[in-house]
Amino acid sequence: MSKSTDERGRIYLPKDVRERFGDQYRIVELPSHVALFPVDEDPLDGLRAAVGDAFAETEVDELKGQAREGISREVRAEADDRAQGGEE
User: Fold this and answer.
1) What is an example of a GO molecular function annotated in this UniProt entry (predicted)?
2) Could you tell me how far CA 38 lies from the centroid of its own chain?
3) Does the pLDDT value for residue 8 go beyond 90?
4) Which residues have a Cβ under 8 Å from the Cβ of 37 and sit 6 or more positions away?
5) Can you tell me the distance from the alpha carbon of 87 to that of 1, in angstroms, rounded to the nearest whole number?
6) For residue 47, how many C-alpha atoms fall within 13 Å in the half-sphere facing its CB?
7) Cβ-proximal residues to 35 (8 Å cutoff; 6+ apart), any chain
8) Whole-prediction pTM value?
9) Is pLDDT above 60 for 87?
10) Tell me, what's the pLDDT at 86?
11) CA–CA separation, 64 and 6 (whole Å)
């Protein structure tokens, strides 16, 4: 799907996308692109729905730390790849 911004920089998502993913998104700037990620009203409920009880014994702060570390590794790897001329 391709969308353009209007004169004020807004992007309008089609109704079927909003119905499927909701009305609230997190905008993530990465070295090579920008991504939109739907945000659940309660992100932990969304995580639990996606993975069941896989993290039932894990504290919220630990989950946040692990997620941040994983994202940092991915961003560093992508930046290293780009610096080495691995752009696609």
Assistant:
1) DNA binding
2) 7
3) yes
4) 25, 26, 28
5) 22
6) 12
7) 27, 28
8) 0.46
9) no
10) 59
11) 35
Query: Which two tokens mark 10?
Result: 């807004």
Query: Are 50 and 38 in contact, with CB atoms under 8 Å apart?
Result: no
Which amino acid is residue 81, in one-letter code?
D
Size of the chain in residues: 88
| Neighbouring-strand partners of residue 26 | 37
Phi, psi (deg, nearest 5) at residue 34: -115, 140
Q: 79: Cβ–Cβ under 8 A, 6 or more apart, which residues?
A: 31
The single residue listed with the structure tokens 């109704």 is: 15
pLDDT at 73: 92
Pairing between β-strand 34-38 and β-strand 25-29 as defined by DSSP bridges:
antiparallel
Per residue in 12-71, pLDDT (tens digit) is: 999 999 999 888 898 999 899 999 988 877 767 777 777 777 777 778 788 788 889 999
Residue 52 is encoded by which pair of tokens? Answer: 């069941």
Paired tokens of 62: 């630990």
